[in-house]
Write a structure and sequence with these properties.
nine-stranded mixed β-sheet; about 425 residues; 11 strands; two-stranded antiparallel ribbon
Length: about 425
């Protein structure tokens, strides 16, 4: 009979970190030449609060490209209505950090930014929507009960907001492992319902300040489910759900979906646009407006034929590289890179207007990985701190991605996509 394996040490104090490293070193296939992964670039304690079973580190090279000339909006959320308010605009030139290992990415981005500069143009960005959604689900014995619950929930939205915002709510003082049960930073604005058979999905829609916010909306939604909806509905109707799920897959969390691609609601909906003259298309990007229009036409049909969720060229590369550099949740790259490009000729071969829409950029400038030393450094480079900084970061991501779309599309639009192929050959090494 095999001996029972020893439990894996899971805490992040020094002794457990050391024990995990020792046990990995003892594996017969471990190569001592790789022991550099145990040598922390900063004290391990600086990372201990961000993940479990902290053991080693990884290095990603960072390129910095620019300048990116961008016309950014300054935004805040109205405290009374939850509406997004633009406070003003400012044109800036930024230097963008990209953490990645994708050959050709930085060069392509630099080329797109160079085209904008050469043209004397500016990438202009707009934030048009901001919500984070959590989808709870309440299962009843019948569809009629679920419909009754949905109607009752609709009548309680104001009371739910008041309950969450009441500073006397005792859950603000209760702690679970030192964390308050309610977050003061997650503000509930809308609650929608969707009945499927005997189940009622309840979609809570929040704003989350400068944080991306999934943890805080989870805490508040759980409290609403257990302390508000279930007990109060039972008193009002005599009905109690058979099962309650905190998230039931309609919330848009880390899974691209048509609902959030069209309507937004899980992150910040951001638009970016730029117009480029024909002369710059030819001299910097080595293409023409006619070739770019043909590429878009054929590419849109390809998107339809494959039922592609997004209609864009390669925005995920820019999103992922900026997310890694600034400490964002990498699991959200898939949803955050849902994008829709629109290219229009300016007429009489005067150039093109290129725009991109990101339905839900899930970014924050506080919390989670943004506390990592490198993330703080690169967020500081981008001047993303303080009120409104999450909106600023979302716009920088969108503007950067637009420059990549411009450059990558130009290389693919050349006859036979020769520039696109040559760029990949040049960055593929000697393999």
């Amino acid at each position: 009979m095999n001996a029972r394996p020893r439990p894996w040490p899971h805490r992040n104090h020094a002794a457990h970190i050391q024990e995990r490293q020792t046990r990995i070193r003892s594996l017969p296939h471990w190569d001592a030449a790789h022991d550099f992964v145990w040598d922390w670039p900063r004290p391990a304690a600086e990372f201990a609060g961000m993940l479990e079973s902290l053991t080693a580190h990884v290095v990603l090279p960072v390129s910095i490209v620019g300048p990116l000339r961008v016309d950014l909006g300054h935004y805040h959320t109205d405290d009374g209505t939850g509406a997004l308010v633009e406070d003003g605009r400012e044109v800036e030139e930024l230097y963008v950090p990209l953490a990645h290992s994708e050959g050709g990415l930085s060069a392509s981005l630099q080329r797109g930014m160079a085209a904008v500069l050469d043209d004397g143009a500016t990438v202009r960005t707009h934030v048009v929507h901001d919500r984070m959604t959590r989808d709870s689900c309440f299962l009843f014995a019948s569809t009629s009960d679920a419909v009754a619950f949905a109607r009752w929930v609709a009548s309680q939205v104001g009371a739910m907001r008041t309950w969450l915002n009441d500073p006397r709510n005792p859950l603000y003082e209760e702690r679970v492992r030192g964390v308050p049960r309610l977050s003061r930073h997650a503000r509930l604005w809308e609650v929608d319902t969707h009945v499927l058979g005997p189940a009622c999905h309840v979609l809570y829609r929040y704003t989350t300040g400068e944080a991306c916010g999934p943890n805080m909306i989870t805490r508040n939604s759980f409290a609403l489910n257990t302390e508000f909806l279930v007990p109060r509905f039972e008193i009002a109707s005599g009905l109690r759900p058979l099962r309650v799920l905190l998230e039931a897959n309609m919330g848009g969390d880390k899974k691209p979906s048509a609902q959030y691609f069209v309507a937004g609601g899980h992150g910040k909906t951001v638009l970016a646009e730029v117009s480029v003259r024909e002369q710059t298309l030819r001299s910097v990007l080595r293409t023409t407006s006619q070739d770019l229009v043909a590429l878009e036409h054929l590419g849109v049909h390809g998107s339809h034929a494959s039922n592609m969720q997004s209609v864009a060229f390669t925005p995920a590369s820019a999103v992922a590289a900026l997310f890694a550099a600034t400490g964002q949740d990498l699991g959200m790259v898939g949803t955050s890179s849902m994008a829709h490009d629109v290219l229009e000729p300016l007429g009489d071969q005067a150039g093109i207007h290129l725009a991109i829409r990101f339905a839900g950029l899930e970014v924050g400038t506080v919390g989670g990985g943004t506390a990592m030393p490198h993330a703080r450094a690169f967020l500081s480079l981008l001047r993303c701190s303080g009120p409104g900084s999450a909106y600023r970061l979302a716009q920088i991501v969108a503007a950067t991605a637009l420059c990549l779309e411009l450059s990558a599309a130009a290389s693919a639009a050349t006859p036979g996509s020769e520039n696109f192929a040559t760029a990949h050959l040049a960055s593929s090494g000697r393999t």
